[in-house]
Design goal:
five-stranded mixed sheet; Rossmann fold; 7 strands; single chain; 13 helices; about 55% helix; alpha/beta
Amino acid sequence: MFGEMAIANSAEEAENAVRAEKSRKCFYLKKMIGEYIDTSVCIVATVFLADFLQRLYRCVVEYVRYSRYYLPEDRVRTILRRSYTYNTKSTFLLVGFLLVGFARISVTGNCRGVVPTMVFLAHIPLYWIFSDLGQSTLSYSHWIRESHGLDYAAGMASNYFHGYLKLSLPERKEDGLHHRMELYEDKNNITFGINRLVILIPDEMFVNGVLESDLLKKVEPLETKFINRAGVYRPFKHAVYRLNQKVNGKTYYFAIEGATPMLSFFDAMQFNLSATWQMKELKREIWLKFYKHLKELITTWPETRNLVELIIYSSHDSKGNLIDVGELLKAHMQNKTRTIDELTD
């Protein structure tokens, strides 16, 4: 009898010990998680405080050294707005950690755990020292790819579109590209293979004044169009090339030119006064962004969306041989003959 009671008591004591151990582990786990959250909130608060002070310092430097870049009447407001503008991700993170901090205060009953102490604040200079650690050439690449319109590539594409294509191509007084191409076809009894202005954008960014191709021959250009631009009547003309290789027994013509801003960029990279290592390192990013932004402008604007055929391509094949532009034109021809796709596969 007594033995059975002793066994029962031992079993109960063992069970209680197990429960106590589980409770102790659970307590320490909750405490560890709570401390981790409090430490994280303190670190984030320290980082944002360091960032706030750094932005304030930059505001002062901007006001003292670069005040001429701002209008006097809104200089301070503009500098503060520019300096203390946060991206969406940073804003959500800040709000999220504020909510977590308030939640911890409501649970613990005090704010000591989530308020940075001197131990944390003493590390603020480290943030200032290493704040640019995340910057790299790859960062520049991502910045170029973004849709802000302030990079070199987007600027070239925008100027090319607004200063040239949007002026010379649409119909104004029966002098648009399609009208001039139709007159050219009727006058010379020929057919255009692509009923648009073909613009070449090779990756080496260089296009000769006369296209080098065994399949193409330069002929008489389209009728010149004169447009008043800033008080000066400027001539706008488009070159025409004949495809020497017949397709289904027929000869085709093309209104074609290279992307002149890309040629200017190529020249700038060869000139010591204008070339920078960033331009040379990121030239492919600039090339691709130029094409992407120009295509977006052309297809978005109703008057030009059907007037330009952009051809972006590698200047050399896998063996290093120069790509023949005539072959590219054949591949991009509109389906004016039923067998054209089969011939260019």
